[in-house]
Amino acid sequence: MNAEAATTSVFGGWISLNVSPALLLERSRLKACLRHAVGPVVLEITEHVAIEDYRAFRAAVPTVGRGVHIAVDDAGAGFASFRHILELRPDYVKLDIGLVHEIDHDRVRQALVAGIVYFAQMSGCKLIAEGVETEPELKLLRTLGVHLGQGYLLGRPAGLTVGALSGQPVANAARGGRRTPVPTEAARS
């Protein structure tokens, strides 16, 4: 992670940074990076590491910068459990590709995502479907009420451009692919 990565608000949206719970609790490196941000920042909490102290984690979030939002990444995988979502009260919940892949053929996945949509409506968080790869998946996710998504159908991975090094807007940044969720309504016209 570096300061340049946080200086561009992609597609008029926000920049997302994957962070571990330890990095957020440490604060100093994260604060140094975020002080250069020119738009909203979403910290995607990785599912690979458990959070030992949810109270300390929640208290640390407002200290890293104004306008910082929290997303639980890959909900349904690793440590991104329902307890994680309940304890963190995130602004965004990113549905793991395991819940999205072939959802149009699986009524159990549909029922689970419908329940999570209801939870999101009641709690005020927004859902982002990860790994949207087919038109039928996109159509069903829209029908269920998931209005943000990312995946090959919505934008193929691309490398960084030379402009990225000079602070110019970058279409596809982290991990070599589009990380900014796009509205599913506007994805395919």
| Largest sheet strand order | 1-2-3-4-5-6-7
Radius of gyration: 16 Å
Q: Provide the residue-averaged pLDDT.
A: 79
Low-pLDDT ranges: 1-11, 160-180
Q: Counting H and I runs of at least 4 residues, what is the number of helices? A: 9
Q: Assign the structural class, choosing from mainly alpha, mainly beta, alpha/beta, alpha+beta, or little secondary structure.
A: alpha/beta
What percentage of amino acids are in beta strands?
Answer: 15-25%
H/E element order = EHHEHEHEHHEHEHEH
Please give the structural blueprint:
Blueprint: E1 15-19, H1 21-26, H2 28-34, E2 41-45, H3 54-60, E3 68-75, H4 82-88, E4 92-95, H5 97-100, H6 107-123, E5 126-130, H7 135-144, E6 148-150, H8 162-165, E7 182-183, H9 184-187
Parallel strand pairs: 1-2, 2-3, 3-4, 4-5, 5-6
Antiparallel strand pairs: 6-7
